[in-house]
Specification:
mainly beta, globular, 6 strands, 5-stranded mixed β-barrel, OB fold (Dihydrolipoamide Acetyltransferase, E2P), about 90 residues
Length: about 90
């Protein structure tokens, strides 16, 4: 997970598209590494979020960057900014 602050204080995340079956919506998955407070072991957690894809250009397996936006639906608070790498 790459998180960056940009002008306007909008968050930006990078992740892999795991589903593109919904109309104008993609589901992406990214991994978060956290340190366990007691055992000091790194744990890998998987997070999934929905993002708005207006032109339906992202496909399953693509590496994409999304930016924070106003709530577009109950679950969608992100929109597609760019496709970093196409799936092979």
């Amino acid at each position: 997970m790459e998180q960056e602050k940009q002008a306007g204080h909008k968050k930006s995340l990078s992740g892999r598209v795991v589903s593109a079956k919904m109309a104008k919506t993609i589901v992406l998955e990214f991994q978060v590494r956290t340190l366990h407070p007691l055992y000091k072991k790194y744990l890998t957690r998987t997070k999934r979020l929905k993002a708005h894809d207006e032109k339906a250009e992202a496909g399953v397996g693509d590496l994409v960057r999304v930016v924070e936006s106003r709530p577009l639906s109950r679950d969608k608070h992100w929109r597609l900014a760019e496709i970093l790498e196409r799936a092979k």
